[in-house]
Amino acid sequence: MKRLIFAMLLTATIIAPSVFASLPVGAKAPLFSAEATLGGKVYGFSLADALKKGPVVLYFYPAAFTKGCTIEAHDFAAAMDQYHALGATVIGVSHDQIAVLKKFSVSECRSKFPVAADTDHKIMRAYDAVLPQDSEYANRTSYVIAPDGTILYTYTNLNPDQHVANTLAALRHWKAMHN
After folding, report:
1. 3 burial level (CB within 10 Å; 0-12, 13-18, 19+)
2. Would you state the pLDDT for residue 130?
3. Structural domain includes residue 50
4. Structural domain of residue 154, as residue ranges?
5. pLDDT tens profile 58-98
């Protein structure tokens, strides 16, 4: 029943997308560690460790296995070669339990990038990525974070269509400025 209500809320907000609050460009990204899964294998993800390797695309999504979140996961998975070419790490975050995310990471993320469990909502709150209609869920918000921890780009829209294109464009712009 809760998924049905969530699907109705999600559908209503996709019809009339609007700009929601998010952390501003230039702000320091809050560091976090979380239980994550890649290809069904659980491990501890650390944003600080990921930033040592290069920029990070951190994206929040409402719920695993819902229509928009599945589309978005497929889009990120299909673009992973482009992200790797730009030296970027991608991590998805939702409120889902790790058991659900283990399956989602294999089937929808196609074992290409990790997804992390934010069951206590601390990460989504720190990033101002809470769905206004239901605080149990994350809003669909994407961040690009520079290796120094500065937020380079943010985009919030429940429609999943432009998150990959927009974050890739932001990474390309950053890379061009740092080569």
Report:
1. exposed
2. 94
3. yes
4. 33-177
5. 999 999 999 999 999 999 999 999 999 999 999 999 999 99
For residues 72 and 62, give the distance between their C-alpha atoms in angstroms, rounded to a whole number: 11
* 78, 41 Cβ separation under 8 angstroms: no
Cβ atoms 29, 58 nearer than 8 A = yes
Q: How many secondary structure helices (H) and strands (E) does the chain include? A: 7, 7
CATH number at residue 137: 3.40.30.10
Give the residue numbers marked as catalytic: 69
**pLDDT tens digits, one per residue of 41-55:** 999 999 999 999 999
d(CA 69, CA 39): 17
Domain tally, the chain = 1
Residue keyed to tokens 């989602």: 104
- What are phi and psi for residue 20, nearest 5 degrees? -110, 165
Q: What φ, ψ does residue 96 adopt, rounded to 5°?
A: -60, 150
Contact 58/34 with Cβ under 8 angstroms?
no
Nearest alpha carbon to residue 40 among 90, 104, 118, 117:
104
Q: Diameter of the chain by CA atoms?
A: 51
- Strands 56-60 vs 141-145: parallel, antiparallel or unpaired: antiparallel
